[in-house]
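TICKET: design request
STATUS: open
ATTACHED STRUCTURE:
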């Protein structure tokens, strides 16, 4: 098969219950576009039967390619690996859990042609989760690279946009920020995700908080500036209060300066703030540590040797 016009790429993690339906729906949609295409499935160390099912699909359809990562590297890194493996002039990235509809490929293709866009992405029209809404608001306040609220993973991209995206090789990867940072003409389309399935999300509250911290510290130095100005403010306030107490004692010697409790509270407060800001700086230093090691973003397992014997 030559270079395809379209690459459909997706990641697999606990995707076994949905993979067959995903394949059928995305195949039918791609067939309706009447262009050559490939389907790239990246197994992100899934503990279920996702890899075996993907290999079965590849055995039945030569347009299906399977890439098996050596372990679970995380959704964003696996998505990057899928995009990097794509050969098509257009690349359609979509999750395989069917929250994002494979049929959106036709809509996105139409919008891309009409708007002459380099990338078309989905924006969740309705979102009820408090944490998700709070995430975008806080991120855009703190980040120097604002991202569209409620943006989805699903997107259709032209080759020029994809090539630019592949140059962003942050070890601490936050794909939503990278998508926007590279620029180009991008168009958002309102979509309604299917969020009715039970057990649909693998993002616990802890993982969501970790994602937020990683996102902010990967795309903004504003927290460091905030720490600097907060520290300067506290130091200035403490100096003014201290000077005021000294002057009061000088001009009013009879004044008794007491307040053991308030002193202890102040020490605890300042100590806590110091630990917080030192920890914040530590996060940035930790990211530098990861970046300078220059490890690969992911590792692909070599294909299993064929069991067929030569005659």
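STATUS: resolved
RESOLUTION: sequence designed for all positions
ATTACHED SEQUENCE:
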């Amino acid at each position: 098969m030559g270079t395809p016009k379209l690459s459909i790429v997706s990641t697999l993690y606990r995707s076994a219950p949905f993979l067959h339906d995903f394949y059928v729906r995305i195949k039918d949609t791609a067939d309706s576009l009447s262009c050559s295409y490939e389907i790239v499935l990246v197994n992100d160390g899934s503990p279920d039967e996702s890899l075996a099912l993907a290999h079965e699909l590849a055995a039945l359809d030569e347009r299906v390619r399977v890439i098996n990562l050596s372990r679970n590297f995380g959704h964003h890194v696996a998505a990057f690996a899928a995009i990097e493996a794509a050969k098509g002039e257009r690349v359609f990235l979509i999750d395989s859990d069917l929250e994002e509809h494979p049929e959106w490929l036709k809509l996105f293709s139409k919008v891309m042609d009409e708007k002459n866009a380099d990338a078309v992405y989905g924006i969740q029209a309705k979102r009820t989760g408090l944490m998700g809404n709070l995430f975008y608001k806080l991120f855009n306040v703190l980040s120097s690279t604002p991202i569209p609220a409620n943006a989805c993973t699903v997107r259709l991209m032209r080759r020029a946009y994809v090539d630019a995206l592949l140059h962003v090789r942050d070890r601490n990867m936050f794909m939503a920020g990278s998508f926007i940072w590279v620029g180009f003409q991008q168009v958002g389309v309102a979509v309604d995700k299917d969020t009715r399935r039970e057990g649909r999300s693998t993002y616990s509250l802890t993982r969501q908080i970790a994602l937020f911290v990683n996102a902010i510290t990967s795309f903004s130095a504003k927290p460091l500036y905030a720490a600097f100005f907060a520290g300067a403010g506290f130091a200035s306030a403490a100096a003014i209060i201290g000077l005021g107490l000294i002057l009061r004692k000088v001009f009013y010697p009879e004044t008794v300066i007491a307040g053991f409790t308030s002193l202890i509270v102040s020490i605890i407060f300042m100590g806590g703030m110091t630990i917080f800001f030192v920890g914040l700086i530590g996060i940035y230093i930790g990211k530098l540590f990861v970046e300078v090691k220059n490890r690969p973003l992911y590792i692909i397992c070599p294909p299993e040797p064929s069991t067929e014997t030569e005659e």
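CLOSING REMARK: The first helix runs from residue 16 to 32. Residues 227 and 277 are 6 Å apart (CA to CA).
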